[in-house]
Structures are given as structure tokens and as C-alpha cells.
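Holo prediction. Input below; ligand is adenosine-5'-triphosphate.
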Amino acid sequence: MNAFSDISDILASFIDGLPWPALLVSESGEVTFINHQMKAQGHLPEIQAGAHLSVVCPHFYNALQGTPPWLTPQDVDARNLQTGAQQRVSVRRLPLGACMLITERTGSEFDLGSAQTARLASLGFMVAGVCHEVSNPLTAIHSMVQLLQSSGSLQPDTLERGLTNIAANVQRVLNITRRLNDFSRSGIDQKTLLSVGQPVTEALQNTQQHALFRNIAVEQSIEPDLWIMGVADQLEQVIFNILLNAAQAMNGNGRILVAACAKKGARVEISVRDSGPGIAPGHLPRLLEPFFTTKPAGQGTGLGLAICNEIVAEHGGSLCADNHPEGGACFTVMLPAHERRA
Ligand SMILES: Nc1ncnc2c1ncn2[C@@H]1O[C@H](COP(=O)(O)OP(=O)(O)OP(=O)(O)O)[C@@H](O)[C@H]1O
Ligand SMILES: [Mg+2]
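Structure of the complex:
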């Protein structure tokens, strides 16, 4: 079984087990899998797996934004043309395309609380990905142990290399499980009224503990009196992850500009721009996909931005990445602004 069919099978069986209607869409927008909840609830009676999303569910397709819309992580409302029901469509990137999860509005609320539903689903997608991701280091460990066991008398340096290889693979598995653990635990915190400067300043203070930031000049331009409802620790984690990625992309040398300002439509924008090499155009649409990394094996989990995106979505906002026209990468977090009450 190759890696692609392997992960498709894992994802399909996970998505079939979800208690909500869901479907999988390929990178070119074809519907590749429809779960039994979606079939059972008659959301899309005519669907044929393999047809394009715009044909299978035009009401979802029309409600989605971005280029291409079916691969852009988002939570949008759509009206079911047949039943008239209001539905929320949550799109999340996956290794071979995207998953769309559908929740129905019951009364004025979405089933289960849409943010909580999306978190559960995202955790599930990541766990499905983990099954695939940890199988590589585990296979490597297994082979190495067999090799060491079958070699009669081992030279100390052979043993040393074998053990180093095992330790690196164990570390890779631990990195993945730690990240997921932090993410799953952080879901229970209550949002409070925050000045946007608070999580930004805390994230910047955090960078001072890291040697990687020693030769990086960080400038900040934070407008005063910008308020949001949020979980300070989670937002700090988002900004810190973006700063860390920037420092890694610049190999510890360069400039970072962190800015926060008010935007039209009662929104607050936090942007992090670096003077690094920028992002290859082909990688841009995949950055928020769980496990997408360009770092050497064992150095990056590819979960950093996927988790940031989840946290920002839970705050009613969005995360975007782009290259700046004057060079370097620029990450933008958009959040709903909040009035400060006296
Ligand atoms: N500022 C940046 N400049 C250039 N590329 C970036 C930048 N930030 C992120 N990337 C790219 O996005 C990829 C995904 O980032 P993400 O944080 O999700 O995972 P990672 O950094 O590779 O792994 P981990 O976060 O576990 O260390 C990176 O591997 C890198 O290719
Ligand atoms: Mg990262």
C-alpha cells in the first residue's frame, strides 16, 4: 500500500465515523468521499463521488471564499436549497485536499456550538494524520531494532548510530503528540476582554528566551486601544509560532515587523512581516494543512500553523499568509474588534 492510498483510507474511515455530515474534496475540487451521515440525512440525494463540488453542492460552493474556495480553511453559512435549513460549512485542509464538515442550525444556535464542533473535527483530522505520520518513525525504529538484534557482536559505533537513529525517531513522535496534547488541552479556556497588545507583547517577551532571536531586530507598531474577546495564552501561542517560523526561515538573522491596527468592518489586524526568503508560491495554499512542512525530517511537525489557524478560527477570525511585494513573508491574523465597556 503506498502512502497516498494509506492516508486516504485512514481519513475516509475517520470521516465516516463522524457524527456530522462531512465530505472529502480533492485538490482539484472533486468530491472523493461522502460520509454515511451525509448520505443518511439526505443532504445531497443526487451526489456521485468524483463529481466537482460546484455540481454536487452548489450552495456550499457559492458560499465559500478564497482561491480555490474548496481548499481555503473557513467557516461559512450556507442555505440548503432543498430544505431551506441554515447550515455551517467548516473547511479544513488535509494532506490530499480538504474536508468539509456540515453542522445544522437548531433554533438560533448551531448544533453543539460550531466552534466546539470544528475543534473536535480538526482534532480528529489531525489524529487521522498522526496515524499516518507516526507510522514512518515507528517503522524506522522497528527496522533499526531488528537490525541491531540480528547483528551478532556489534561495534560500539554501530550501536551508537543505531541508538541515535532510534532517539531521533522517538523525538519526532513525541513532538507530534506534545503539540496535539497542548492543542486539545487549550480548548477549555474562557475568552475575556483583552487589549490586543497583551498577547503580542507576551509573545515578543517569549522570544527573548530563544537564542534564535539574538540577531533578529524586532520592531513593533501596535495601535493603542484595540480590544478583542479572546484567550490570551492561545493568542500568544499563535503570535509566538508565527514569530518562531519567521526566525527559523531567516536562520536567526534579519528583521521582523509586528504591527496591530484597526481595520474596516470592526476588525483588528495583527501582521508579522519578516525579511526572510518568503514562501514558494506552490507552498502558499498548503501552509495551513496539518503536517505540511519544508523542514528536514525530525525538525518540524507541520502542525504549528494548522493549530494557529484553528485557534484563530475559534476566535471568529482568519489567518492568511502571503509574500510581501518588497520581499519576505507576511502573516496576517484578523480578529473581530470589541468595544471596551467602561
Ligand atoms: N515566515 C516564513 N517564511 C517562509 N516559510 C515559512 C514561514 N512560516 C512558515 N513557513 C513555511 O510553512 C511551513 C509550515 O509551518 P508550520 O509552523 O505549520 O510547521 P513547521 O514550522 O514546519 O513545523 P513546527 O511548527 O512543528 O516546527 C514551514 O515548514 C515553512 O516551509
Ligand atoms: Mg512552525
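Residues 1-5, 108-112 have pLDDT under 50 and may be disordered. That is the main takeaway for now.
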